[in-house]
Design brief:
Helix content is 55%, strand content 19%. It is of the alpha+beta class and 409 residues long. α8 runs parallel beside α11 and α9 runs antiparallel to α12. The longest helix is centred in the C-terminal third of the chain and has 43 residues, at 263-305.
């Protein structure tokens, strides 16, 4: 350990003696590492931004259960004549036996339809959504209430409407509040018990308990179930429980359901950015290669300039491995110095790039991200370049004959 410490000290002393020449020679590795740091930090920032956007729009904790309504025959998708589906009773059983305290689930089915009101002459076109046990939790109420268990047990025909449909109704029949008003869907009259808050986009929509859908309607347009698992680490376990439950309750038809998670989207993003890293890393690697050649050039010149010194060291008892260690230490030290300067330059380059992107583009911006993986890659590159390109000069120096070396001086 003492020897290694002394060798490293000598290596840095040698670099200090020819600092300007060394910096010029390793300019390639400085630029290469700077480019690598800039690119990797920007890619990490883009991936982080993409994951954040994905989390804002969808949940990686979400599991979707849907009926498989088509089959593949000779490469073509053909509609099935019949398929299993979840109705309200099956959903309640699934809630009780699987979800319980593990997830919050919603069963829903949609169709478009025509709505009428006694006091309005013109009908309204809207999306009719059957839900259980309630409208989605992310939808906030402007007034009124949400659904209760009693609404699914024949205690009355009630509905919740969104603000877009409420706005259309108020244009035709100005009312301060629509709560308690009746709205007709087919032969069924629903009493409005809630109005949702303003949404940025969407269509006029009315939510009613899914129990109003007949089996014939559900067979024609099967509902889907969304389960928001409380803990992300439980997603795969809950998915397996759902699949086992479907196999048990739909014997011979378990393949009639598709149980999907958003994990595949995260995997797609990760794979895409990993491919981008590899391609850009190979391109930038050319600069690192040039920097490695510069290190080899510095060490070969150093061997030529210090021939007599090497001869004296050997005459005083230095072994081949001591000379080899000295020049390898010098190579690694030069590579680490170039990588450190490249790291600083790369961080500056990333900051400038982010600022330029912020000036040019509008909307949500990303920031450069510096991960442990990026720093580990930089250290690995520095050590690898130092060892690979320093090996030949070190071997050449260690093989010098001490008598011949001193005679050359």
């Amino acid at each position: 350990m003492k020897k290694l410490s002394a060798t490293i000290g000598e290596a840095f002393e040698s670099i200090r003696a020819r600092l300007f020449h060394t910096l010029l020679s390793v300019l390639g590795i400085v630029i290469g590492v700077a480019a690598l740091v800039t690119i990797l930090s920007l890619i990490d920032g883009m991936e982080k931004h993409a994951r954040r956007q994905l989390s804002d729009t969808t949940s990686v904790k979400m599991i979707q259960i849907s009926s498989v309504t088509t089959k593949t025959v000779q490469g073509m998708n053909i509609s099935k004549d019949s398929f299993p589906y979840l109705n309200y009773e099956a959903f309640r059983a699934l809630q009780h036996e699987v979800f319980q305290n593990q997830a919050d689930a919603t069963l829903s089915v949609r169709k478009t339809g025509e709505l009428t009101m006694p006091e309005v002459a013109e009908p309204f076109a809207a999306v009719i959504t059957g839900v259980a046990p309630d409208v989605w939790g992310r939808m906030e109420l402007a007034e009124g209430r949400r659904f209760s268990d009693a609404d699914f047990e024949g205690a009355g025909d009630v509905a919740v409407i969104n603000d877009l449909l409420a706005g259309q109704i108020k244009k035709s029949a100005p009312e301060k509040s629509l709560l308690g008003k009746n709205i007709q869907l087919g032969e069924t009259s629903f009493r409005i018990v809630g109005v949702l808050k303003t949404q940025q986009e969407g269509r006029p929509e009315i939510f009613v308990p899914i129990v109003h859908w007949t089996d014939k309607e559900l067979q024609k347009s099967p509902p889907s179930c969304l389960a928001d698992v409380h803990l992300v680490e439980d997603v795969q376990d809950v998915k397996k429980q759902i699949e086992d439950w479907l196999t048990k309750h739909y014997p011979g038809h378990s393949d009639g359901f598709d149980v999907a998670t958003n994990e595949y989207r995260v995997n797609q993003i990760t794979e895409g950015f990993m491919l981008f890293r590899l391609i850009m890393g190979m391109i930038v690697g050319i600069s690192v290669l040039v920097g490695g050649i510069g290190i080899m050039n510095v060490l070969l010149i150093s061997v030529s300039e210090r021939t007599a010194e090497i001869g004296i060291r050997k005459a005083l008892g230095a072994k081949r491995r001591d000379i080899l260690r000295l020049f390898l230490s010098e190579s690694v030290a030069i590579s680490l110095l170039g990588s450190f300067l490249g790291l600083l330059l790369g961080m500056l380059g990333a900051a400038v790039a982010v600022a330029i992107v912020g000036m040019v583009l509008k909307g949500p911006q990303f920031e450069a991200a510096y991960t442990f993986q990026t720093l580990l890659i930089i250290v690995a590159v520095a050590l690898l370049v130092g060892i690979v390109f320093g090996t030949y000069p070190a071997i050449k120096a260690s093989r010098l004959d001490p008598v011949e070396a001193m005679r050359r001086e």
